[in-house]
Amino acid sequence: MKKNKEELIQISKQIRKDIVEMLTESASGHPGGSLSAADIVTTLFFNELSINLENPKDENRDRFVLSKGHAAPVLYSALARRGFFDPKELMTLRKIGSDLQGHPNMNDLPGIDMSTGSLGQGISAAVGMALAGKVDKKDYRVYALLGDGELEEGQVWEASMCAAHYNLDNLTI
Q1: 3-state DSSP call for residue 134?
Q2: 20 to 30 A Cα–Cα from 81, which one of 15, 20, 135, 169?
Q3: φ and ψ at 26, to 5 degrees?
Q4: Is residue 142 classed as helix, strand or coil in its secondary structure?
């Protein structure tokens, strides 16, 4: 499923368009954090992550943690465009009864590996996933996307020191 540079550029543009349309439709949300992550999330979901649409909870899949959970629209768009759910659902962002709420919930949508929202907690979950992979001798990788607003949280530094201590070379922040 690897995409070439031009395909990635087009997907990233579509994801940005989705973000603007979702946030306009919902009249609520955080455009900056979502838009700034579009290229990173596009590259991960369309070129890097080893994931299985038919089995989104495959124990050997790569994991992605959107630590800055308020940037959920970028994740929702990438998941829809990757085929986890119908892109028409994107316009239900933040509506009552929608699975697309202001922060990602791993119990609501396939492809979400961690529920996030409280800044600083995503990296701790990602470190735990990476450590579990090492202990279980699995080859999967864990990717976590953090926002600048959480980098000064003590929990982020503690998780980073833990990752270094255990040499978690299967973790990318």
Answers
A1: helix
A2: 169
A3: -85, -20
A4: strand
